[in-house]
Amino acid sequence: MALLGAALLAVATPIAVLAQTLPSQSAIASAHPLATQAGHEILAAGGNAFDAAVAVASALAVVEPAGSGLGGGGFFLLHRAKDGFQTMVDARETAPGAATATMYLDDEGKPIPRASIDGPLAAGIPGTPAALDHLAKKYGKLPLASSLAPATRLAEQGFATDDRFAMLAKWRLDALRASPAAAAIFLNNNDVPEPGHMLRQADLAQTLRALAGGAVHFYTGEIARRLVEGSRVAGGIWTLDDLAGYKIVEREPIRGKFGDINIVSVPPPSAGGIALVTMLNILDGYPWDELSETQRHHVLIEAMRRAYRDRTQYFGDPDFVKIPVERLTHPFYSDGLRNSIRMDRATPSAVLPGAPAVAQGQDTTHFSILDQEGNMVAATLSVNLPYGSGFVPPGTGVLLNNEMDDFSIKPGTPNAYGLVGHPANEIAPNKRPLSSMSPTLLMGPDRVGILGTPGGSRIITMVLLGALSFADGHNASDWVSRPRFHHQFLPDEVQFEADALSPELQGALQALGHQLKPSSRQYGNMQAVAWDLRSGAVTAASDPRGGGGAITKTHATK
Ligand code: DON
Questions:
Q1: Cβ–Cβ contacts within 10 Å for residue 166, how many?
Q2: From atom 5 of ligand 1, which residue's Cα is the shortest distance away?
Q3: Ligand 1 neighbourhood includes 408 CB (under 6 angstroms)
């Protein structure tokens, strides 16, 4: 691992056009084989990676409704080959105009159970439809209508649901049953469909067809009217103005450096990029080759603890709160954090200043794309909990998110993921809730990695472990499959997959004072693409924990 040497003084500068051998193939890794195929179909039709992103995202909205959809939002990190331009398309949901800081509290100031989780009151204004239009028009080569065609076909003709669909529907059964339109679409006779059930989504197909004419047909007009009326009848607070006023924002990515690898990642309103760079800056100052296995795990855990402490303190929507981005991502800042790490014992989180932090989530989706021109997309999209709020406004086929739960509902009170409030992430009209989603590009001198994963607050440490695996020279299937462990400041414990820490290592870490908590199951669903800049070889890998599709293909250039 490239951890030798003192902390780097220079903060990374934007990458220019890569000196490269063009990719020998294009590659797509996504959480569903049908979505990956949809992306390749569009590449074969002459589209670029950005058109393919529209196809994959819209297909996932159809075939993986638990994870993302037109009723949700997310982040698209783009790299354009011809000039090295990089940007993050922020399609995060926004709070409706009538939202207030106390909207999920009762008269006594207590959180109202499930108010920010189930039903339309839990939904932010969706960003994904606006992003698809923007990607097609500003960066794509094909009309939006062409790139939405595979998804429309899947919605109309149907697809066979799988075990994962059923498992997650079972978990959200009550919320889905509470929405007649959602139950009619996603359940079979009001029950979880058996794997193999053909799911057709006529309303969604119609909404996709309208969207093909431009996002204006989603955010205004008949669909907007149905979204607003359907929500309000069931207790929501959306207005036509909220939808008409939604805007995606292009933001400068967060940049860092780890050895000779340039890190390009998501900026606020996700905490992911900054936390990733902070952790890598801390690790970059250790003589890694001289550390024992226990010491390596110890400093990794301590770096995670410190970066997540910062998450609780500083992060929120950058259009509403000032975040000290330069300071937090500067190597000098991490030098200070590193100096507070003792090698002989764990630092109890309670002795670090700061507020409590977040726990994990259960769904969301990530995909990674590389086309044969060298354009890249890393996108993590979400409706938050599996099947979002469970609510579909009648006649739209659009499942609404429950991303409002990513705000701090009440200072000091944990939300569904254990998120505890802090003022920077308080609810305000039109504000974006803080996220952990971390689509990331790793740009080494001779290799590039594109990666990301769902998993709530654990997303950031999964991407960190993936990045370390990349830095170690491993291939994409190793990044996505490596066993995982996680610390997030509070609760003050190391969560780990069964095979992540050997019994000896567990004993050694406990002796240093770390509290260990085995995870009841594996977590994450990482999707990655690797490109060898010398040979042009390309690989794609899907996390073995999920049922994704990773396919490389040669497409004739058009
Ligand atoms: O934006 C976020 O950080 C969360 N809404 C993501 C949720 C998630 O990843 C759930 N997944 N397992």
A1: 18
A2: 384
A3: no
Alpha carbon 176 to chain centroid, angstroms: 23
> How many whole angstroms separate alpha carbon 212 and alpha carbon 210?
5
Query: Is 525 close to ligand 1, i.e. is its CB under 6 Å away?
Result: no
Q: What is the 3-state secondary structure (H, E, C) of 322-387?
A: CCCHHHHHCHHHHHHHHHCCCCCCCCCHHHCCCCCCCCCCCCCEEEEEECCCCCEEEEEEECCCCC
Active site residue ranges: 364
Tokens (6 digits) for 311: 């998450």
Query: 36 by DSSP, 3-state: which?
Result: helix
Each residue's pLDDT tens digit, 281-327:
999 999 999 999 999 999 999 999 999 988 877 889 999 999 999 99
Ligand 1 mutation pick, 308, 453, 459, max ligand atoms within 8 A of CB: 459
Main-chain dihedrals φ then ψ at residue 211, nearest 5 degrees: -60, -30
CA distance to 24, 270, 283, 439, 466, per residue, from 479 (Å): 21, 22, 18, 14, 5
Nearest to 280 by CA among 494, 3, 558, 65: 3
**CA of residue 67 to ligand 1 center, whole Å:** 9
Please give the Cα distance from 7 to 22 (Å, whole number): 32
* Residue 131 near residue 89 (C-beta atoms within 8 A): yes
What's the CA gap between 311 and 90, in Å, rounded?
19
My answer on whether omega of the bond before 491 falls inside 30° of 0, hence cis, is yes
The contacts of residue 247 (CB under 8 Å, 6+ apart) are 130
- Look up the pTM and report it: 0.95
User: CA–CA separation, 470 vs 530, rounded Å?
Assistant: 9
Could you tell me the two tokens for 117? 């989780």
Whole-angstrom distance, CA of residue 372 vs CA of residue 379? 18
The letter for the amino acid at 162 is D
pLDDT digits (tens, 9 = 90+) for 364-401: 999 999 999 999 999 999 999 999 999 999 999 999 99
Asked if 267 and 440 count as a contact pair (C-beta separation under 8 A), the reply is no
